[in-house]
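Case study B.
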Amino acid sequence: MSKTFFAMTAVGKDRPGIVAAVTRVLFELGCNIEDSSHTILGGEFAIILLLTAPDGVTRDRLETSLREAGSPLGLTVNLCAISETELTRTKDNRHTLPFLISVYGSDHPGIVYRITRHLAEKDVNITDMNTKVIRKNETTTYVMMLEIEIPSEVNPSHLTLELEAIGKDLGVQVGVRPMEVAEL
Amino acid sequence: MATLEVLTLPDPRLKLVSTPITDITAEIDRFVQDFTETMQSFRGCVGLAAPQVDFPFRIVAVDVSVGRKPHPNHGLMVMLNPVVTACEGSESMREGCLSVPDFTGNVRRPTNISLTYLDPTGKECHLDTEGFEARAILHEIDHLDGLLFLDRVSSLKDDVFRRKNYL
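Model:
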């Protein structure tokens, strides 16, 4: 039996019952959750689910059922079909090295854009990104951690110098270090 | 010589407690060769435990010299019945495991350890080591007790990561 993969996103005001409402629909239609990520930000709850649906469950039927279940909870649901080849293609197949970038300094517009624009220009892929705002008294500190994959054509020490220069310009600290994984 | 198949999650055999070696038989000798060869067949792999290849006895192999970055090390060591006798310090580092292929995790482990073990000839040995090599040994000894790094992390959200690069 061939399976169709779907990526579902749902966003809405956080409240009890959101996950159960979504997963009840999936369970009743015989779908399987392949992977998921859930997070909350400023009272907004967001879900990304990767799921497989059995034959006969069309995208339209799935979307209608999910929207019916989600609307009483104020959820905005979106669904898109993905092919299995697309699933595997999202992995970066180039030869790359993992690095961590940490950025922190007083908060102001442009920090994320200036850093990520440079990475994009160098064809460096961001594989994970986390940000935090730390407020203490009058000062607001912005902290950003990026996991990146540096392609072999890019020299990591050059990239580090370039990012440090951008950091200096922005008035923030930029650190770049290789990410080492103990392979056991 | 042969490379052995590595069990992966959720195989229940990975959760068993392995049996101590009482006698170094010809079978153990042969196993140690295949076992070492299996570890060396994975690029960058610095450790393997016998239960990972469905041999539920207390044997581990480590070779930190083949890691991607240099670390102080004692080269290839095959340890029978390893027992940690002392440990000190605490440090967190990202670990990957052949038996948990798609994920890596931040695991906190002691920095310095002392241990006793038998080498493959049956000689009693004592080792003091630190850092990356200590981590590798502790990760492998965990396998002998049915523990995976997933049993050592405190948060899926903060400590477990999907792999972006595959071995």
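The mean pLDDT of chain A is 90. The remaining cases will be described in the next quarterly update.
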